[in-house]
Design goal:
The complex is a heterodimer of chains A (545) and B (129). Chain A is mostly helical. Helices cover 76% and strands 0% of the residues of chain A. The chains are: A mainly alpha (545), B mainly alpha (129).
């Protein structure tokens, strides 16, 4: 379903865009210039590891709340959810709910103890009480795998945008722009470190909320501020009628797709508190109290944003229509920018072109900021966990560790560019849900057991992390996401024996089970003194960095 | 104070029983254990766990109920509430409301019941250094 067959409608959809390409490029360039300026400024103030990894731990709860929101509201949220709702109606809304409710796990169980007992990465907490070399290797590996899945989703979103803006002729340009996104994100991370990246997130969060609010107001205005009227129009235009507003359009076909819905639901709600790029954000504030405040701000900001996805998604269904959306991107990733064009006055109008340009620039900014956060998280874990503490066994200088982090950022940037060029037929929200499933299977059990279970052992952690990681990734490889249908990563092949698009239903319980079983079957018992130290530190904040 | 310091114990002596829990404080191997076993710390732990654990079970249960209803109670979820607004949408929005409420409630509980206890213990441990 790519290339030639969709070229004609795609060009029609993009014709209004082509004329005002200059505006989009200008807006986006302004964003990149400003954020690179901030990055250079932040880079000048970045001296040691505390600055590079944790932004000097000097951000306020509100600033970090905005930055968390910026890190979290990715292309998946903005482009993916709007598209999923526009095409599948109510079923797409599950993403918004799961992505938000998930924050309560982070708030109640993870954010504060992590801030109190860790230093730079998720593995710091585990290393307090477990044998640090094996657990750092495991946690570092899963951090990098989760981040790469997440990066892939962002690059898919970027690719969809470029295809929308440049038309079918833009295959070459798509590659160039993905490469450019990769390059800028590497610059953010290597020059600005956490401080620079945090400010990029803050700027982006403000832009994204403002842009979404503008579209929401314009959409609701068209329907006399009457939600029911908007829903009715969306249902009519979808051709599905009342069913469009009810659960089941995407996931209600049969028993398997219903299981897939549960699997997705579990992955969404348990994934957030295991996402490495979110976890390291808690280190950028001075205290656990500030970490709690930042999560509460994030819940408010992210919740408001996800409420607006109702207007974006159903608005796109009602005003743009699924036919036009599918013609532009078969997974719906371009529904939000197309809606912006429509409420601005329609294709070909000046207002439409301006709004399309603004929203596309915001979407690019969104993608850029999130990929920077992901690159930082994975390169930090590589340098701090794998390089400094496992490979060099703690005998590196800080300078060498930071240089390693920067080199890792370049390599990870390269990997994500390569992935982005290949994958572009998938829905960005569905892809991010895979990252959530891997995070919930491999990271969350070990974090919770380490913090709250006194009999947890190194073997439990290793079984849980590797078991969760291998099972979730393996099930994804053999799922319909990777092969067996025209939307898959490899549409020409078929080895899709696992029927669910999201592995969470199997791999998350498995991760928890293995952590428990591994601890029971350990030859060495858990060290009560080390757990005492971790528990006291994590609850009181004594000796926190 | 860094976890790095733990790295310097040779890997062969992975978990020697008598090793001080924290090499930075010589002569006080059981300092953290003593605090952990104190009544004050027990209260702090209870203040956190007795609030956070049941609430976590509750909100995850409520969320799963919503997911299961979406899957297996389509007719109920499709029931009209007003105009084109159906039960599914109302329950979805209710998830937003409960999330906001729990976040607010926890912040209040933590400020009143957890923070003072944590700060007192931390201050006492720092004074004992």
């Amino acid at each position: 379903m790519t290339g030639a067959p969709t070229a004609a409608p795609l060009l029609a959809a993009a014709s209004g865009a082509g004329e005002h390409r200059t505006l989009i490029i200008t807006l986006f360039s302004v964003f990149v210039a400003i954020t690179l300026g901030i990055t250079v400024w932040a880079g000048r103030q970045t001296k040691g590891a505390d600055d590079f990894y944790a932004g000097g731990r000097s951000f306020t709860g509100f600033q970090n709340g905005l930055a968390i929101s910026g890190d979290y509201m990715s292309a998946a949220s903005f482009l993916g959810i709007a598209g999923a709702i526009a095409l599948f109606g109510y079923d797409g809304f599950l993403y918004s709910i799961g992505f938000l409710v998930a924050w309560l796990v982070a708030l109640l169980l993870v954010a504060e103890p992590l801030r109190n007992s860790g230093r730079f990465t998720m593995a710091d907490v585990l290393a307090h009480r477990l044998r640090q070399r094996p657990v750092r290797t495991a946690a570092g590996t899963s951090t990098i795998v989760v981040s790469i899945f997440y990066l892939l989703a962002q690059m898919v979103g970027a690719g969809a945008l470029v295809a929308l803006l440049l038309g079918a002729s833009g295959e070459g340009s798509r590659r160039w722009i993905i490469a450019l996104v990769g390059l800028v994100m590497v610059l953010y991370v290597t020059i600005g470190g956490m401080k620079g990246t945090t400010w990029v997130q803050i700027v982006k969060a403000v832009l994204l909320i403002a842009g979404t609010l503008l579209i929401t107001i314009l959409v609701l205005n068209k329907f006399d501020w009457n939600l029911s009227q908007l829903l009715g129009a969306a249902a009519d235009k979808s051709g599905k009628g009342k069913a469009f507003l009810e659960p089941g359009l995407q996931y209600g076909k049969d028993g398997t797709s219903k299981l897939n819905f549960i699997s997705l639901g579990i992955a969404l709600v348990l994934g957030t508190a295991g996402l490495p790029h979110i976890l390291i954000r808690f280190y950028t504030v001075p205290t656990a109290k500030a970490a709690r405040k930042s999560v509460n701000w994030a819940i408010g900001i992210i919740g408001a944003f996800y409420l607006m996805t109702i207007a974006l998604g159903f608005g796109a269904a009602a005003l743009v229509g699924s036919k036009t959306i599918i013609a532009s991107n078969e997974s719906g990733n371009t529904a939000a920018p197309l809606l912006a064009e429509e409420v601005g006055g329609g294709a070909g109008s000046t207002g439409g072109a301006i709004l399309l340009a603004v929203i596309s620039a915001v979407a690019f900014a969104t993608i850029l900021a999130v990929v920077a956060g992901l690159t930082l998280a994975s390169s930090a874990s590589f340098a701090h966990d794998l390089w400094a503490n496992v490979i060099r066994k703690g005998r590196t200088s800080e300078k060498e560790e930071l240089l390693t982090a920067k080199i890792a950022a370049v390599v990870i940037g390269g990997i994500s560019i390569a992935l982005g060029i290949f994958a572009h037929r998938l829905n960005a929200a569905a892809l991010v849900a895979l990252a959530f499933a891997v995070a919930a299977s491999a990271n969350l059990p070990t974090i919770l057991y380490s913090l709250f279970w006194k009999r947890f052992t190194t073997r439990g952690a290793l079984w849980s992390i590797y078991g969760g990681l291998v099972s979730s990734v393996t099930l994804v490889i053999f799922s319909p996401v990777v092969s067996g249908n025209e939307k898959a990563l490899f549409p020409g092949m078929s080895f899709d024996w696992f029927p669910l698009g999201n592995p969470g239903l199997v791999s998350i319980p498995l991760g928890f089970l293995l952590g428990w079983l591994g601890s029971l079957l350990s030859r060495e018992a858990a060290d009560p003194k080390k757990y005492a130290e971790l528990e006291v530190r994590s609850l009181t904040g004594y000796g926190a960095h | 104070m860094d976890s790095e310091e733990v790295a310097e114990t040779p890997p062969t002596t992975a978990h020697p029983e008598g090793t001080p829990a924290h090499p930075g404080i010589p002569g006080q191997p059981d300092r953290f254990t003593a605090v952990q076993e104190s009544a004050e710390f027990g209260e702090l732990r209870r203040a956190h766990r007795s609030f956070a654990f049941p609430l976590t079970v509750a909100f995850i249960g409520w969320y799963l109920l919503y997911v299961l209803l979406s899957n297996y109670a389509g007719d109920f979820m499709g029931t009209t509430v007003a105009g084109h607004v159906n039960v599914a949408l109302v329950l979805g929005l209710a998830q937003f409301v409960t999330t906001f409420l729990i976040a607010w409630w926890y912040a209040r509980h933590a400020a009143a019941r957890i923070d003072p206890k944590a700060e007192a213990l931390k201050a006492r441990m720092e004074a004992a250094e």
